[in-house]
Amino acid sequence: MLYAILCYHDEDFVGSWSKEQDAAVMEKLGAVQDNLAKQGRLGPVARLLPTTAATTLRKENPPVVLDGPYAETKEQLLGFYIVDCKNLDEALDVARDLGNANPGGAYEIRPVGLFAPGGKMK
Amino acid sequence: MTDTAWIDAALTSARPQAVGALLRYFRDLDTAEEAFQNASLRALRSWPQNGPPRDPAAWLIMVGRNAAIDEVRRKRRQEALPEDDRSISDLDDTEEELAERLDGSHYRDDILRLLFICCHPDLPPTQQIALALRIVSGLSVKQIARAFLVTEAAMEQRITRAKARVADANVPFETPGAVERSERLASVAAMIYLIFNEGYSSSGDTAETRKPLCEEAIRLARLLLRLFQSEPEIMGLTALLLLQHARANARFDAEGQLILLEDQDRSRWKKPLIDEGIALIDKAMRHRQSGPYQVQAAIAALHARAERPEDTDWQQIDLLYGALEVMQPSPVVTLNRAVAVSKVRGPQAALDMIEPLAARLSNYFHYFGVRGAFLMQLDRNEEARIAFDRAIALANTSAEAAHIRMHLDRLMRDSRPRDSKISKK
């Protein structure tokens, strides 16, 4: 089963890291990713630009385009991983490893229903 | 990240909101700052043991407020009963305070007010910047002094003076109306731009020291944009700063000499910052409410989009500067436009464009640098030399002077063979 691990954190907080702190966190996360990649379990990894760069399209009729992210929350969606795991326990283990590398915030673990990296839906 | 690094980051990110709310309670900058300071000290003691609170800003506001109230009570009691110095618990009415904070309707105006107080029109620009960096960003006086290249004592004095003026200025604490809010927003945007420029217009040897000013300006711009997500000019401002800062590493060579845009190693431009800047200017343009920050950001985006200097869309840049001239008529804007014009219509057209500016820009370094370059392209080398000499005399930094000297050296090299021919005659 593929799991999406969605990374939520307070953007103000992450934005207050010094360049060195940011680099240190990214390096630790890199180590966790390398481990998964070696086992052939790591799919795409994305770090999203700040939510201020986001635009939301509400599917009303006609659709409405709004500035900013979809949800006004204290913690924002900052990135995600796709990881191949046998079950939820294994996915939680991965999230714990990532969490040790990058404290604070939360991970939402969502089983992936359809995965089409090339965009082809079959 | 270590415990203390984590707490530092949490305190820095909660600071604008917390100090802003404390300022609304106490209506006095010093009291608000002191209350935040007290709350931060308590956080350093309590968070490593009890774990961080879910909402650090709410925690700091509550603890800071109670600590300040305790302080007042304690002082009063000390006057009455000097032997009694027991302070009241700072977690008395947690629930009530938290409920008040969580309604959150003040949050946006609190931060805006805090920023606005720092850029009060009574303050000269250098005091505005220093005050904002101290109060909103929470940089130490030492850090600010270093970035401004002045002594700590001088900076301390500058900030104290600024605070005294602000206290006399009577900034209203009521929730601002729509017009007042948009006026405040414009002043704050201008101040953030000033902070950025203070860092950006440094010379090669000081660029590294002053870089934190640019980074802090970007952080404040992002903060402001998060509060006012649909303001195209705030998108434009943030985009402008990101796009300029993306080039920071490529602007100076190893000796600290300025490298012009067309000579920069574009692989050293920071792609994520450019991407974010372009995303923001794309969003802003959709609103069709143009403004000076958006136009400047659009110009910067055109430079950023060009993979090689020869790919630059100068025609579009010329048009954008034309739009900026209408919005913000200024000889400096025309001077910048002339550079684009020289690429599109040649140096003579560009020179014709800047001739009328001579009187108003007679003390402006860049005027003579640009004029010299146009004259050089027209092979009017003697006039070019005079312009470059004047530019060197007006240079603000050693990097600027060195850059012009490079042009002069090239002129001398080029003109020498001709001189020798003349002497043979």
Write a compact overview of the structure shown:
The complex is a heterodimer of chains A (122) and B (425). Chain A is an alpha+beta fold.
Features:
heterodimer, A: 122 residues, alpha+beta, two-stranded antiparallel sheet, globular, B: 425 residues, mainly alpha, disordered C terminus
| Annotation field: number of helices of chain A | 3
The main β sheet of chain A shows up as: 4 strands, antiparallel
Say what oligomer this is.
Answer: heterodimer
In total, how many beta strands of chain B?
0
Low-confidence stretches of chain A: none
| Whole-number mean pLDDT of chain B | 86
Helix content of chain A: 25-40%
Largest beta-sheet details of chain B: none
Question: Outline of chain B, from the CA principal axes?
Answer: elongated
Order of helices and strands of chain A: EHHEEEEHE
Going by helix content, strand content and strand pairing, the class of chain B is mainly alpha
Overall shape of chain A: it is globular
The greatest interface here is: A-B, 24 and 28 residues
Q: What is the typical, i.e. mean, pLDDT of chain A?
A: 91
- How much β-strand is present in the residues of chain A? 25-35%
Question: What strand line-up does the widest sheet of chain A have?
Answer: 2-5-1-6
Poorly predicted runs of chain B: 81-96, 98-103, 418-425
Terminal Cα separation of chain A, in Å? 17 Å
